[in-house]
Write a structure and sequence with these properties.
Largest sheet: 7 strands, mixed
Helix content: 25-40%
Strand content: 15-25%
Distance between the termini: 81 Å
Radius of gyration: 24 Å
Number of helices: 15
Length: 482
């Protein structure tokens, strides 16, 4: 039996550990690995009142102070990457190499947020350019919006929490965190790291629980801004409960990668194998649909299958493991079922299609029909579908048939195709000579259509976590008075 990691609720400056708990069973170990104190109605009420009281105190912290804290936390995340990656492996079945990569991204995210905190300011507006503005001066500043609610997903619970919490704090807000039930210990550990780095206890609270906790927080008038990452149905529920609040939603995808005839097919296959099955494909931008020009289709399918065959599948605590388990048995079984459906519709399963518990064998489905669920819906699992295409304009249209529009990949050396795809694809981002599953934490990230509203990454999140305040000085000018 492994150690059971306790995750308390942080409410009004105190860690609460007694009362009702929810156990998390590790999907690979098949035993309890963490236990979270479930937030009660009284905890929610107290947390909301505390957030309202604390908002002004956090806002008064100088940007330099906030930045220094975030930089110390970044250094601590790097130093503690092995410990935090171990928690991710236990709670989620995420391989240690993926977990370490996530924590190193946490450190980057915290560092970027620190840099952006130092840049928050305003501007002098050119009011004297219009007759009514002559003789006056107007200035703006970016001010904290107020208490932020951060609702985070299980697939990247540390880095996505870092994005939301670090940007909110950099902007001068207090934050209530509602972590995923599947990763309470890893989420709590990151909050503890930030507090140890000097983040004031007034700046953050943690409430564990399910959808009922999230719904009550979303509807609360004390909350000014909501940042949510998760599924489409849950995102719609968040927006409905939030009402007129400012809401940012990152709701998933059905990522397409296009491989043109001029591409380096072996290299493209290696990249798609590496990025299609990391975290067992449980990423909103994980490689799901790969469209390959028909003349190179069989070559790519064979190369991808060979690369997937070489992946090491098994114990997420083994440093050599490439693919661990999915989040639970039901998720793995769904991928098995969808694979069988595609095969029944005429697709070839070149490798995989089976599971052992929550461990899904990395699966390649070749030439499924366009209406198969592995093509149309978000698989969010260890499966990549490979489809042939003939005409570049037609494949762009086929990619756009999806209700999602988060990110896409394109392998080509043709600048005209690159510009055309960038213009025509209905996505928030395009990765050239890389798969859809690549992200830099300091550039804007987000989608269109059912993939959500708003952009993540600290600079753009700070814009959403702040409001513009204007100062108009009548009769006082720096521009000239006649």
């Amino acid at each position: 039996m492994s150690t059971i990691h306790e995750a308390g609720c942080l409410v009004a400056g105190e860690w609460l550990t007694g009362g009702e708990h929810a156990d998390r069973t590790g999907p690979y170990l098949r035993e309890t690995v963490s236990r979270a104190r479930t937030a009660q109605p009284g905890d929610i009420t107290a947390a909301l009142a505390y957030a309202r009281r604390s908002a002004r105190q956090v806002a008064r912290l100088a940007p330099a102070t906030r930045a220094d804290i975030l930089e110390r936390a970044a250094a601590a995340a790097t130093a503690q990457s092995d410990r935090l990656a171990g928690l991710l492996a236990l709670e989620l079945g995420k391989p240690l190499k993926d977990g370490r990569g996530e924590i190193l991204r946490v450190a980057d995210t915290l560092s970027v947020a620190a840099a952006e905190a130092r840049m928050i300011g305003g501007e002098v507006l050119p009011v004297a350019g219009w007759a009514r503005g002559v003789g006056n001066t107007a200035l703006t500043q970016r001010a904290p919006a107020g208490p932020v609610l951060a609702i985070t997903p299980f697939n990247a619970p540390a880095n996505l929490l870092a994005h939301k919490l670090a940007a909110s704090f950099a902007a001068g807000n207090t934050t209530i965190v509602k972590p995923p039930p599947q990763a309470p210990a890893a989420s709590t550990a990151l909050v503890e790291l930030l507090l140890e780095a000097g983040m004031p206890v007034e700046a953050v609270q943690v409430l564990h629980g399910g959808g009922d906790v999230g719904a009550r927080l979303c509807a609360a008038p004390e909350i000014a801004v909501i940042s949510f990452t998760g599924g489409v149905a849950a995102g719609h529920a968040v927006a409905h409960a939030a009402g007129p609040k400012r809401v940012m939603l990152e709701l998933g995808g059905n990522a397409a990668t296009i491989v043109c005839e001029d591409a380096d097919v072996p290299a493209a296959a290696r990249v798609c194998a590496r990025t299609g099955y990391s975290n067992s494909g449980q990423s909103c931008i994980s490689v799901q649909r790969v469209y390959v020009q028909r003349a190179r289709f069989e070559e790519f399918a064979e190369a991808l299958t060979a690369e997937v065959k070489a992946l090491v599948v098994g114990d997420p605590l083994d440093p050599g493991t490439d693919v661990g388990s999915m989040v639970d048995d039901d998720a793995a079984e769904r991928v098995v079922r969808w694979t069988a459906e595609a095969a029944g519709q005429g697709a070839r399963v070149t490798i995989g299609g089976t599971r052992e518990g929550a461990v899904m064998a990395p699966t390649v489905v070749a030439a499924p029909p366009a209406e198969a669920r592995v093509v149309r819906e978000e698989v969010f699992g260890a499966l990549v579908a490979v489809l042939p295409y003939d005409d570049f304009d037609e494949v762009l249209a086929e990619c756009n048939r999806s209700t999602y529009g988060l990110q896409a990949g394109l392998f080509t050396h043709d600048v005209r195709r690159i510009v055309t795809a960038w213009r025509e694809l209905e996505v928030g981002g395009l990765v050239v000579n890389g798969s859809s599953n690549f992200r830099l934490d300091h550039v804007p990230f987000g989608g269109v259509k059912d993939s959500g509203i708003g952009r993540e990454s600290p600079r753009w999140m700070i814009e959403d976590f702040t409001v513009t305040k204007t100062l108009l000085l009548k009769g006082l000018t720096i521009w000239g008075d006649q």
